[in-house]
Write a structure and sequence with these properties.
The complex is a heterodimer. Chain A is mainly α. Chain A has seven helices and no strands. The chains are: A mainly alpha, B mainly alpha.
């Protein structure tokens, strides 16, 4: 139970970025709630046995579709909710590990074997790339799946 | 698409200007290429153009409007430089409302022009100190999501807020992303690392979360969305921008980690 309460931290994580992106103040609560919903959805998929990429794809689809629906009701561009709510799922740690591994190669002594560093950096980098693509596909899904209605 | 019936027909260069201004504002406020292009088409058509061609590259934005009349056939084309891509979602929201009013015929060309200029001039909703504090809290929340304890959350909040302050200071002095990302991630990680080292049982969660305020979320998501929508060049440019920032973060982090040990 305590681990599910942890998902509530997704709201402050999204709100910091929402303020950085200058989201209209009246829509802050939507960004926060969507961030929690998305993050909890990813956790649910992972608890049910899915991997992090599949979980992120489901969460991204949820965020994208709800944001577009709510945006068309409130006459706001759905992207502003979707992007702020998706931020807590951007794979910062994986990217950080990938580049950290690459920089580790720079500090290797002359002639040392860097295979281990290259492989771990590659694995983190590929995971990060797949998570970003899954997230972006979810956020862009309304525009891709209903190109006529979700015009703007 | 309906056209509004303005009594004297709007001159073509006014249509061109208004379309370009609105497109530029959207492009610089963080709209994806597809959305900006669709909005510019709608604006020009609402103002009375018969045919609109839009070209959006990462640093330039151009539009060509045509009007076919019985007597003459006019075409005008113009380009503007779009120096940087930021994020200002309140402006996106305001431009959308403005476009709605324009299409409904509630705005004449003069008031549309004034209102668009007013949207572009509008100050941000949140003062800089509030953003700095909230971004700190946001990184603290990331530390919690990574399984950090309470001292780790507090250390990350303070450290990331310091890093964010450095970032604001450097951006206002027009430093390039590679420089401000390096400096801000260095300060953020160093402050967080020192505090977490003293007080926390989970310093790794604090360290990993302390530089996330620099992650270029808008270019990453817009870049992938551009690629999926078929705007390949712009998508790659946005990814390249993100890669430079992430590389800057990594350089700052590696310097700070050498000091922290």
């Amino acid at each position: 139970m305590a681990s599910w309460l942890l998902e509530l931290w997704a709201a402050p994580a999204a709100l910091g970025f929402a303020m950085l992106f200058n989201v209209p103040p009246r829509t802050l609560w939507v960004c926060g709630s969507l961030a929690i919903a998305g993050h909890a959805c990813r956790k649910l998929v992972m608890v049910l046995g899915g991997d992090i990429v599949l979980g992120t794809l489901c969460a991204g689809l949820l965020i994208g579709i709800v944001a577009e629906w709510w945006g068309s009701r409130q006459d706001q561009p759905g992207a502003i909710f979707a992007v702020s709510a998706a931020i807590p799922m951007v794979p910062g740690t994986y990217m950080y590990k990938a580049v950290q591994g690459l920089l580790g190669i720079a500090t290797l002594p002359h002639g040392a074997d860097g295979t281990q560093l290259l492989v771990s950096a590659g694995v983190s980098g590929v995971t990060a790339a797949m998570i970003v693509i899954a997230l972006a596909f979810g956020v862009a899904a309304p525009m891709l799946l209903w190109p006529r209605t979700a015009q703007h | 698409m309906q056209t509004i019936a303005t009594a004297p027909v709007l001159p073509l260069d006014d249509i061109l200007n208004l379309t370009l201004e609105a497109g530029l504002l959207m492009h610089q406020s963080g709209a994806g290429t597809h959305r900006t292009s669709a909005a510019m088409q709608r604006i020009a058509k609402a103002l009375g153009a018969a045919r609109v061609e839009v070209m959006i590259s990462s640093t330039n934005i151009g539009v060509s409007v045509e009007r076919a009349e019985t007597a003459s056939h006019e075409t005008l084309t113009a380009f503007r430089k779009a120096p940087h891509m930021g994020a200002n979602f309140a402006a996106l929201s305001a431009v959308r409302r403005w476009l709605h009013q324009l299409e409904q015929g509630e705005l004449d060309s003069q008031s549309a022009k004034l209102q668009l200029a007013e949207i572009a001039r509008r100050p941000t909703h949140y003062p800089r100190w509030a953003i700095t504090a909230m971004v700190g809290i946001s990184c603290g929340a990331f530390a919690a999501l990574f399984g950090g304890d309470i001292p780790a959350i507090l250390a990350t909040t303070i450290g990331a807020a310091c890093g964010m302050a450095v970032r604001f200071a450097l951006v206002l002095r027009h430093f390039k992303p590679s420089i401000f990302a390096t400096a801000a991630s260095f300060v953020g990680l160093l402050c967080t690392g020192v505090l977490a080292h003293w007080f926390s049982q989970t310093p790794d969660a604090a360290r990993a979360a302390s530089v996330l305020f620099l992650i270029p979320g808008v270019p990453l998501i817009n870049g992938a969305s551009d690629l999926l929508n078929g705007n390949y060049l712009n998508g790659m440019v946005r990814f390249a921008m993100s890669a430079v920032i992430i590389f800057g973060i990594a350089v700052g982090v590696s310097i700070a980690l050498r000091i922290l040990g």
